[in-house]
Structure formats: structure tokens, C-alpha cells
Amino acid sequence: MQKLLLLGDEAIAQGALDAGLSGIYAYPGTPSTEITEYVMKSKEAKTGKVVASWGANEKTAMEAGLGMSYAGKRAMVCMKHVGLNVAADAFVNSAITGANGGLIIVAADDPSMHSSQNEQDSRFYGKFALIPILEPGNQQEAYDMVHFGFDLSEKFRIPVLMRITTRLAHSRSGVARKEPRPQNKIRLPENLKQFILLPANARKQYKSLLNSQAGYILESEKSPFNIMIDNANHKMGIICCGLAYNYLMENFENHHIPYPVLRIGQYPLPEKQIREIYDNCDSLLILEDGYPLVEELIRGFMNNGKPIKGRLDGTIPRDGELNPNIIARALGLEDTYGRDIPAIVTGRPPSLCKGCPHIYSYNALNEALLSVGKGRVFSDIGCYTLGALEPFDAINSCVDMGASITMAKGAADAGLVPAIAVIGDSTFTHSGMTGLLDAVVAKSPITVMILDNATTAMTGGQNSAALGKIEDICEALGVAKDHIRILNPLQKYHEENLAVMKEEIAFEGVSVIIPRRECIQTVTRRMRENKKQQLTEKSEA
Amino acid sequence: MKKDIILAGVGGQGILSIAAIIGTAALSKGLYLKQAEVHGMSQRGGDVQSNLRISDREIASDLIPMGKADMIISVEPMESLRYLPMLSTDGWLVTNTKPFVNIKNYPEMDKLMTEIEKLPKQIAIDADEIARQLGSPKSANMVILGAASPFLDIEYGLLQDAIRGIFLKKGEDVVKVNLDALEAGRKLALNRLN
After folding, report:
1. How many percent of chain A have pLDDT more than 90?
2. Are B142 and B178 in contact, with CB atoms under 8 Å apart?
3. CA 20 to 30 Å from A205, out of A183, A320, A478, B1?
4. Interchain contact, B84 vs A341, CB within 8 Å
5. How far is CA A440 from CA A377, A478, A505, in A?
6. Superfamily assignment of A4-221 in CATH?
7. A167, A340, A348 ranked by CB distance to B47: nearest
8. Do A115 and B61 touch (CB under 8 A)?
9. The complex's ipTM?
10. Are A337 and B37 within 8 A, CB to CB?
11. pLDDT (tens digit, 9 = 90+) per residue, B3-43?
């Protein structure tokens, strides 16, 4: 079959389709979004053979995936690394229940924080949950590992975590496909108590998980993704996880490297090979994207063995993504560099699009708060986080999905009144609703602005679960109907908008303001698609 | 054969279309390819780049090492300079001179040009103006690709084929406009070389 030119994300999606996937569940998050989008656009999803859906958040997605696995079919759940925090309850407990149909959770990490608020390493979650982890080193492996991962999951009846990083997720290369295989038929778990985590049962299940660990290690030791490459110079051995191998090879002409190399693509770590490279070499260099997980394990608390270099001793920077130059420096090879950036080149941070409804909303909010002063606005995760930058300088927090409402409540509890929360429509249904209920119960004097642009904008305009439901949700949660105010965020309505904002900010209870206008990106896209449609119809006629 | 290319611009300017055309042409030649892109927040009017690597041998890293890029292709003049640490000292810089001003402290144009002209191998053209003269202001990125085409080590005909393949679904008119833009950029570059 001809190779396909695919992003790492797309390779995973195609791999899942070809490996007999029945359902994919996700919440959009850079750099994971394109996996689910690719499946959604596939023939299999369009004809209803595969379910592909955005959940309200990562936890609901994870649970739906677990339900599909319960029914004996293969499921994939995708999220960005911080999404795994949201799904963590379901994720960690799914290791105790185990799987029935193959279940793969893909967590896309973002070292260097290209589009995230931290660079947490999802491998720790896999280790914490005591389940196998797969970490592809290139697009082909990303494809192959899905098939392999479903088999592993079904063999051990255990969910498998697949950890990727931004660089693989958003880099394209040629991928060869396998012959597609059929989906599983519905098949109940052999033991119908497997998924009941009542303590008496959970203890049994947990023991069984612990007893499986030796088997997982054995699988890692014979895994085609853990490869020992012996070379002559044993002064140093190099352990590379995932993409790190590519950066290492980049530094050697014809890819000939003098030192023994152990490539890691499957965890728990293969003890046999780790021992072998440790015993055969005078020192070790550990190259891994993210946190020093492997390095810490090998170094150990006493740190009294052979010299081990990596992120902990400063050979590799403690934070940030790896690249070929970092590894050149670690190996004492020539570090290359072009010319300096001329001093006149200035930063160009991202900004809200021309015509974006948030521009008006922030300008109006700033004006409404003039008499109150700075430091009152708790915001959230989305395009509107750009309100932190010039020329708006309009918000004071961005922590995690939904935190705007609950932080405003906490600040109001402390006496900081008025306190304002600014949250997007999709973020509101992701994790804001429960916080709003807290505020209603406590009768908190907060004003919640739900910026409704009818989409999940920042990740590229996916459907928002909140569409058409926001005021009903707010009212059902107990916000007084006359304090749910809908605005048209346009300058021509400025006077009435400003009056509404001032009124609700002054109100000493929970009020909700909903500036509502569609995202300029999705409007433009729809117009473009309409035009294309017309063109096709014209040419067909 | 090996070409390591940095594509530069501002989010929304269409550098990924340039990448798609070079990539398609490279694949039709049976070359290996890796292309790292930027998705997410930076696409909102921020600086964006793509690392495009083409080779007749297998490529290891998705990222080009610093100082090893053979070429920078930029659709915006200031952005062309942001990646100079990536460019090899004898590499080519091919850039649009039409500034995209969405920040307050955008540098003065003549100072930018001075910096661009300091480079031993550079081609700077007002691709927007050329595209406008051709009656298709949106194809400025194809003008830039045309200007870069003499240095790509990929047959010109393969680039034309790739444009036909990619734009065909948008209609014959769109194909022609883009081919014309490619040709105009290429001619200008070849004239400068002579």
C-alpha cells in the first residue's frame, strides 16, 4: 500500500481505524485534537460504523470509553496532558476494573508549553495507575502501536496509556498501513463483577493488577519497541525514550553511533535490558522528553552507583523539549548555530482575531470596572485567555478549566467584592457548571461572564456541548432569571451593554452575563464551505 | 540530496500551503520527508514556523538542528529574520517584503531591509504586490514559493503538478492563478540571480 503523509496524531487515528476501533471519545486540547478530528472525518465514522464524539470533558470521555470496553469493543480516549488530570478519577480506577474490549488512552504532553499551562509528564500517570505505557518515537510507530496496544490491552484485560508529545503529534511523515481488521462483537466481561469496585471486590481486583506487573515487565522485555543496539564504545550507554532517539541519531553522520543505545517505547521499563546496559557501560546518559522519570528510577535514592547523566545533574536542561542541539552539547559534540537574531526583531504574541467578539467584551468589561479598579477578574482556558495581553490587560488568572468561577467565589468569600469570572461557553459546560452551583448555594456576590461564541474556538472550532443550553443550565442551577443577561457584543449596543454590566456587577448575588456572538473563524469557515458547496453544485449542474 | 527548510510567517498567512506543495512534490519524487508544524494558540496572529525536511535518505529528527537549515522561506520580512540562528551561514533567505503589522512596535521597514540585505544569499520581493498585479492577492505565498523554487533541488514541473493536484478541487481558475503566481516569483528570482 502507498504510504500516507500523516501527522503523528493522524497516524494514531488511522492506526485505530485499521485496528478495529469501535468508538473514540475526547475533549479537544492541543496537541491531541487532530486524532479525534481525523476519525470524525473518516468514512467509518460518517457511515456510523465507528462512534466519534466530543465529550463535555475528558472525564466523561474516559468513562464512555470504559463503557465501550465493558461491552467488549475497542475504544480510544484522547486528551491533552492536563486533560488527564480531569479524567484522573476514571483513569486510575479503570486500572483496577481492568478492560474488556481493548482500551487505549492517548495523552498528548506539551513539553516547552507551546500551548499549555504546564509540561507535566503523563508517563507518571501510567506508572501511578500501574498500567502499561506506549511511547512512539516516530509516526510509523504511532500507527503500529495502536494495533499492538489494543492486543496488549485485550491480552491482559488492562487499559493501555499511549503517551505522545507535541512534536510527534504535529509533525508529518510517511506511514505505511496494515490490512484493516474487523471490530469486536459485543461480548460481556467473563466476570460480571469485574467492574464493581466495592471494597471487597476492589481489593481482589487490585491484587490481580499487582500480580500482573511481572507480566507487563516481561512484555516490555520482549517488546519490538524496546530495542538494544550494541556498539563498541562502552564508556557510555545511552537510554532514549520516544523521540529522543531521533535527536540523538541526528548528531551522527550516517546514523552510526559509537555507544550502546537502548531505545524505550514501552513501559514498565524492561528490567533485563536496563540491567544489561548498566552492567556493560561505565556510565549512562538518559534522554527523555518531559520529567526525568527513567533517570530517577535508575539513579535511585542512594545514588551510589555508576555516573548517570540526564536532567537531574544538569547535563540536559531540567525543563523544556529536547532537540538535536541539546543532545549535541550533552555528548560534547560541536554545537551548531547560524546568526544572531537582529535586535530590531520584536516578539509577536498571538492575539484575538480581527472581528472577534471577545475584543468588544473585554473593552466593555474594562470600562465597567473603571470605578472598581484592577485585580478583580478571574479567567479561564480558551482564546479569551489572550485578554491577559495588551491592549486589554483585562484578566488576573488562568489556572485550569473552570477555575474562573470557583476562584471568584473564593475571593468573594474572602471579601473581595465585586469578583468577576470570565469563562467561555465550552469551558463552562466542561467544568464551570459545578462551580456555578457552589456559588448559587453560597449566594456568592459574583458576576460570571460566559463568553458565548458557540464553539470550542481555540482548538479550531469543534462543536461546543453548551450550544443553545447556557441560560437553561444557569437557571436550572438556581441563578435568578432576571440576573441572567444576554448581550450582543457589538459597539452599537455599547450603552445598554455597559449599563447591564454595571448593574450586575453591583448586584450582591450570583449574576450571569452572556455576551453572545459566533466566533469569527467559524463564521468565515462556514461561508467558505457554503461557497464551495455552491461551486460544486454549479459544476454538477 | 537533502534540503532542510524553515517556513516562516504569521499565523493565518498560509505557510502550510507552501509546505503541502513542496511536500507533495518531494513525495512524488520518492523522497523522505518530515514536517513539524505549529498548531494551537500561536495560530492566532502569532509568529509561526514549520520545519520541513526532505532527503533521499531516511531523516532522523523532526526538528532541524540550529545553524543547519539550507533555506528560510518567509512570507513576512520580520519573521524571516527571527529564524537566522537556524540558517546555515551559506543558506538562502527567500522572503516577502510586505510587512504584516499587527503589533504596536513593528520595526521600521528600511531597518528590516538593511538586516535582510546583510545576508550573502537572499532574495527579497514584494510578493503581495506581484500577486495583486496578477489579480489574485491571496496567492502571494505562491509567488514566494516560486522565488524559492530555483534552490529547492526539486524539478519545477513537479511543483506545478503538486499545485494542480492540491488546487484542482477549487476549480481550474484557482489552479491557473496559483501557477501564474509561482511562475512570476520564479522569474523574478532567476532575474536577480543573473
Report:
1. 94
2. yes
3. A183
4. yes
5. 19, 6, 15
6. Thiamin diphosphate (ThDP)-binding fold, Pyr/PP domains (3.40.50.970)
7. A348
8. no
9. 0.94
10. no
11. 999 999 998 888 999 999 999 999 899 999 999 988 766 67
